[in-house]
Amino acid sequence: MKKIGVLLIIAIIYGCSPTAKKGESIDKDQKKFNPVRERFAKMESDALKEPYHGIFAENESIRNLFPIRETNVSTAPITEAAILFLGGLKSGQVSRTTFDIMDQEWRKWCNVDNGIYDRQGVSLKELDKAQKESAFDLMEVSLSAKGLQLSKDIMKTDQTLKELNNGSTDFDEELYFFTIMGQPSKTEPWGWQLDGHHLVINYFILGGQVVMSPVFMGGEPIITTTGKYKGNTLFQDEQNLGLAFMQSLSEEQKAVATISETKPENNNVAEANKDNLNLDYEGIPASNLTNQQKDKLLNLINQYISNMREGHQQVKMEEVKLHIDNTWFSWVGETTEVAVFYYRIHSPVVLIEFDHQRVVGVPNADDGKPSKNHIHTVVRTPNGNDYGKDLLRQHLQSHEH
User: Fold this and answer.
1) What is the pLDDT of residue 62?
2) What share of the chain is helix, strand, coil (3-state, %, to 5)?
3) Which of 129, 119, 125, 66 is nearest to 96 (CA)?
4) What are residue 342's DSSP bridge partners?
5) Which residues pair with 177 in a beta bridge?
6) Please, are residues 288 and 327 in contact by the beta-carbon 8 Å criterion?
7) How many CB atoms lie within 10 A of CB 359?
8) Are the CB atoms for 366 and 358 separated by under 8 Å?
9) Tell me, what's the pLDDT at 61?
10) What is residue 32's predicted lDDT score, i.e. its pLDDT?
11) 276-318 pLDDT, tens per residue?
12) What are the residues whose beta carbons fall under 8 Å from the beta carbon of 155, sequence distance 6 or more?
């Protein structure tokens, strides 16, 4: 019983289900009584009882961070792709996929596997060939080529976990679910969400403006050594650029940036159910960096922002640059080439996390320590504009509905 209790605690804390035993998959009856599954359901229910507020630092007082404005970047291709996607669904699928723009479905997402979390919408697995093509077309026009490829590669890791766990039905490269909030429109607010294990994208659109957050991208294994997708590799740039930036700091700057030199556990703080997180700035502010170091930090930030389609990536990066001197970088762990670590980039308009996590899904690989073979990344928009909520608020205030 002691061993079972330990496994349960690990699953709850680290955000993935226990590894299935040989020949075992969790069927519907097991899911119904799975205490880990019930725990995640309660976490979400408790979070949704609180109205959305957003992620704020203590005493944050900056106003008008996200005004409604013209970007001169068209969102028409995204709107047209969403209309085609919905038009190709059957009536029952449409009813399961579409939600009101104000619906809490925006906040119903989680990075854990399907054995312990129930998702809304339609999955790639249940779509026919033409419908799948339309779903990927929507992703393609919303994301950059890099962002689309990364998303597909993350999906591949779930197929690898399926293979490593004896065909467990908790894992599958097509168990990724689409929902649409609002009606795709050139003038009215709307958006789409993709929700699945290690891949969550929230994509809000108002006119020519886009808010792509919260975004969760992760993976395990990071480097696939067997099976259908042998050679599939994730997050090497995010990992190596983060380490290189930290290594480029002076010893004094490193000391200021470092929260802890040891990393015995997972460190991400802004994952699922953390929409109203209070998070103060930590580490070193970019105002204490040289211009060359600021450029390196911006390059690291762009590694994440550039998962958006190019025009809107540029719009977001201009927003980031406006607040560069109030952008903070913090670090947990050592700085050697073999080190595992966590880093956070936090400004009034962007929050980015990178975390080496304990291995959970790969059988017999968990040694109780974080590993480079399990990575979580998170991108958020602080100060009330995750899911485009601040833009939506302003729109509703100025329009009668």
Assistant:
1) 84
2) 40, 20, 40
3) 119
4) 332, 355
5) 123, 195
6) no
7) 22
8) yes
9) 76
10) 60
11) 999 999 999 999 999 999 999 999 999 999 999 999 999 999 9
12) 173, 174, 176, 196, 199
Which pLDDT value is given to residue 352?
99
Three-class SS string for 44-110? HHHHHCCCCCCCECCCCCCCCCCCCCCCCCCCHHHHHHHHHHHHCCCHHHHHHHEECCCCHHHHCCC
Q: Which two tokens stand for residue 87?
A: 């038009």
DSSP 20: P
pLDDT at 119: 96
Res 24: pLDDT: 40
Structure tokens at 362: 């790969």
Contacts of 98 (CB under 8 A, 6+ apart): 86, 179, 180, 181
Count Cβ atoms below 10 Å from residue 13 Cβ, excluding itself: 11
Give the position of tokens 């929409």.
Answer: 275
Contact (CB, 8 A) for 356 and 263 = yes
- Which residue positions in the chain have pLDDT lower than 50? 1-31
State in Å, rounded, how far the first CA of the chain is from the last one.
Answer: 56
CA–CA gap between residue 393 and residue 401 (Å, rounded): 12
- DSSP-assigned beta bridge partners for residue 379: 215, 352
Phi and psi at residue 350, in whole multiples of 5°? -155, 145
DSSP structure class, residue 272 = T
User: DSSP letters along 111-162, please?
Assistant: SS-TTS----SEEGGGS-HHHHHHHHHHHHHHB-HHHHHHHHHHHHHHHHHH
Residue type, 83: I
Name the DSSP class of 277.
-
**pTM here?**
0.92
